[in-house]
tRNA-dihydrouridine(20/20a) synthase (Thiosulfativibrio zosterae), 337 residues
Amino acid sequence: MLDWTDRHCRYFHRLLTQQAWLYSEMITTGAIIYGQDLPRFLGHDHDQPVVLQLGGSTPKDMATCAKLGQEWGYAEINLNVGCPSDRVQNNMIGACLMGHPELVAENVAAMKSAVDIPVTVKTRIGIDEQEDFETLVHFVESLVGAGVDGVIIHARKAWLQGLSPKENREVPPLKYEWVHQLKQTFPDLAIAINGGLQTLDAAQLHLQNYAFEGQNLPGLDGVMLGRAVYENPYLLSNVDTQYYQAKTAIPSREAVLEQLYPYIENHLSQGGKLNQVSRHILGLFYGMPGGRMWRRHISENAFATGAGIEVIQQAHQLVATEIERMAQQISERAGQS
């Protein structure tokens, strides 16, 4: 989720769920070590538990950044070995590292020696021409030997050349069974699954035994949702009750907005721009009457000089008006029948 799940996005998502583990966008070690603005890269608000996801391949730098992540209050450090973007491949970051399992293991060991919090790896099931499960087992085996605390597996392989990052999320076939077979191979390792999951119900199926070709494969320890949540963030509102048996009320979209307004105003008072926050909430009314009006109004007006929360309030009013109009139509039709 490079350039997406920044601190503004995570603040918004935390208003929808108190329990889900939120992940930072992938931050390169160079940005942290050589950048001049640590609060920009490492700052976060009330979004615990949150994981710092790092991109890099130099053990010394990874250890330095992991230690900084712990000092800044992150609950876990995650190494990204799944991003297929050309932007990161050229610096030996992301999915290309699957071709260098020993180097990844060295990075994991270096981070483990630098921090007391868990160190995990997010990866794919393979790259390019890799077609055998045994190669994935060897890769994970090297991570276990280095002391990794858990892995998140995107159940597709990545093509390092020939496919765009978007195509790499859609074209290679999903092999969910490989992730469950991996859990069978490494029963003591925490394993989560990622890729192609659009609903909480679909995700929950992977936490229980998984049937494949007559096999009853073990359930997994966790599920990661990325694009589905970004496009439809209100999915998160049901996480606490469905996954954590929370007894708290599910927050309404309106209640979330009311809590978000002070955050936005504080951001603006410090010289920030409305669109830096508002771009993350475009999907709040996904699938709802007026949802397109909401997105259009914010998209067209949030970039304007001096734009404030009135832009979001106006967009919300469009939604409310559309819902009222549709309710009136339904009432009239019922009266005519």
